[in-house]
Amino acid sequence: xxxxxxxxxxxxxxxxxxxxxxxxxxxxxxxxxxxxxxxxxxxxxxxxxxxxxxxxxxxxxxxxxxxxxxxxxxxxxxxxxxxxxxxxxxxxxxxxxxxxxxxxxxxxxxxxxxxxxxxxxxxxxxxxxxxxxxxxxxxxxxxxxxxxxxxxxxxxxxxxxxxxxxxxxxxxxxxxxxxxxxxxxxxxxxxxxxxxxxxxxxxxxxxxxxxxxxxxxxxxxxxxxxxxxxxxxxxxxxxxxxxxxxxxxxxxxxxxxxxxxxxxxxxxxxxxxxxxxxxxxxxxxxxxxxxxxxxxxxxxxxxxxxxxxxxxxxxxxxxxxxxxxxxxxxxxxxxxxxxxxxxxxxxxxxxxxxxxxxxxxxxxxxxxxxxxxxxxxxxxxxxxxxxxxxxxxxxxxxxxxxxxxxxxxxxxxxxxxxxxxxxxxxxxxxxxxxxxxxxxxxxxxxxxxxxxxxxxxxxxxxxxxxxxxxxxxxxxxxxxxxxxxxxxxxxxxxxxxxxxxxx
Length: 503
Prior knowledge:
Low-confidence stretches: none
Helix content: 25-40%
CATH class of the largest domain: Alpha Beta
Structural class: alpha/beta
Strand content: 15-25%
């Protein structure tokens, strides 16, 4: 897709479609009045008919009249006081989705209505980046993954034109190009996550990582079962040994070993990659078990982040670990009551084999520190409790010390992604005590979400944040800005966090 920035009035731009966002209830003053006049009063007629309202993400597709664009798409951004960066991304995505399935080769997007918002400090370049990212993410169609015939796929967008009245065209274009790359990375993570369990095994995930490393000149190491056992990754192997598809601990690095960034950090991202989660011996109910192919989303996100950072800032010091397993019942599966030794030497009483994500993450976090990580973030579809608590639009997060959590949260704010900090309550630790060894992997159900964070904390000695994306990793129904399936959540946050320390 080609990207072009023009300093022009929207009614002078030629494209297949011109997208016109508006804030609040449509008021026909200034440019919107001129657009209405050039369409022969079509906008006012739609407003009178209540088809054009202030509802967020509501769209109307109308004829262009005297405007050289073939069609107009009007899209509501909602009340100005509640428009944040997330909304701007989703405005771009919703506009893109409104055109889905149609033959559209060029789209022009008018930036001015969103460029004056306090959310972006009036910076049109920020708006350009967020909207461009949204357009790319909004074009994503999960059904295209398994379509073999190119004829059944709608034509791809050839050109995105960003329209602004004045400003630094070079800066705006550079920002928009960054947004396109961010969107492409999120879509790659979504495709990996959406692919079926018989299509993406731990070894296939490792092959994907090798391809990323080769494309971007990254260092990679794939740890197979024999070596993982020799290293002492007892928790990781306890989960993966029950499947005929053996586990893989995937390790990727950008920059030199131990190299620190401009903020004196060696950041590591650790992703949960359960390619299918049956629950193991503690088997899950059959209802919606097919969705458990999504339990690899954290690992898919980490792989995508490594490529996106490499595309945007090659050589950025960064470590990525994807702990890839299948959690299956079988003759070699771990049983409830089995005791294993973690990579850091702690002994764990596995009371529930369906609390497996924390086991593979624990060994992944320990290994990241052994490789020199000074600051860690893990991302995982870890608990159903977080979805019940926060729903499908807010990611739960734990972290310590607070200054590191605040840096991760600030990256999320820049990315337009929402997080809610959850407490690490020391008084819950006794509920995790084992009769025999250091602790259980699953204590009593009360406060289970907090206890998952407390468990992971046992395997870090450096600043650490845990992002529980179990509620936000995928949607079960389509939304105005996204289809069913994987969302790519946290990809943009982690990229922002990594790039904050670039030289």
